[in-house]
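Reminder: ligand-aware prediction takes two inputs, not one.
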Amino acid sequence: MERILTGDRPTGPLHLGHFVGSLRNRVKLQNQYETFIIVADIQALTTHWETPELIGANVREVALDNVAAGLDPEKTSIFVQSMVPQIAELTVLFGLYTTVSRLKHNPTIKTEAKQYGFTDMTYGFLGYPVSQAADILFCRSDLVPVGEDQLPHVEVTRFVARRFNELYGDVFPEPKAMVSEISRLIGLDGNAKMSKSLGNAIYLKDDPKVIKKKVMSAVTDPARIHKTDPGHPDICTIYAYHKAFNAAEVPEIEECCKKGTIGCVACKKNLMSKLEITLAPIRERRAEYDKPGLIEDILMNGTERAVKAGEETMSMVREAMHTNYWKER
Ligand code: TRP
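Here is what comes back for the chain with tryptophan:
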């Protein structure tokens, strides 16, 4: 069976943007691939090193969001990055032949450095794509379902794998990225990206009352003052959400909006009922798994399986790099 590796930074609970960009695909693919889900706590610390306690608290939340979304912990291995030492080991080795200029030109690094106001980047932040390559390659993964902002990191990973194989011999597959049809979800405020730090997100764990408040205050087409004014669905947040959660009715909604025969409030109410179809079962599963010790057990089992896969890879790597000095003893 081919393998999938993907995951999230535990900087907060997961939202609809995560769901549409990657979570939905993971759930769909878990029966066709052996799936590993990383809770990337060390990567989160490359931007939040001053507040490690906040990251620790979210490890549990993110794991819960994954099982709530429908990942079956019997089949998939959900694990904590910092508890798989082979990832740290590979990060050091991959750094031997990955140049600083390759990392400095990574567009996602550039965007995030600007967003966080890093003028003088730390070694750890600049190097996190190398560490992400280790996340993906420690289990010799074949496929990486991600949002489009992650594509530059998968490119680094493909370079790292290819170059390793050229230098030392064939150990790693060159993993492919899989981007979903809707790979980015616009925020409630109309901002290009739904994100926790922008405060424009609907969380998977939000209850219907909170969702109602958020949807009702979401930005629509500012040119529509009266219900009968013709709308411009392509610039409307709610229309974008219909595309992601109510595909079947999209042609009809587009037509009615453009003609001014459906008002924004009715359109929002319709969306909320469709969101509930997705979110109600997620909320129920979350409650089932949110019992003392249960998610910890799931993470412990997943981490054990990840360490086993990592050890298999490391023995191939040590052989290839001639660092298995005392093998015979
Ligand atoms: N960089 C990803 C994000 O910010 C999280 C992540 C860490 C990841 N390691 C990964 C994603 C490996 C895919 C594969 O969301």
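Residues 5-9, 38, 40, 43, 132, 135-136, 144, 146, 150 surround tryptophan (CB under 6 Å). The chain has a mean pLDDT of 96. We will return to this case in the review session.
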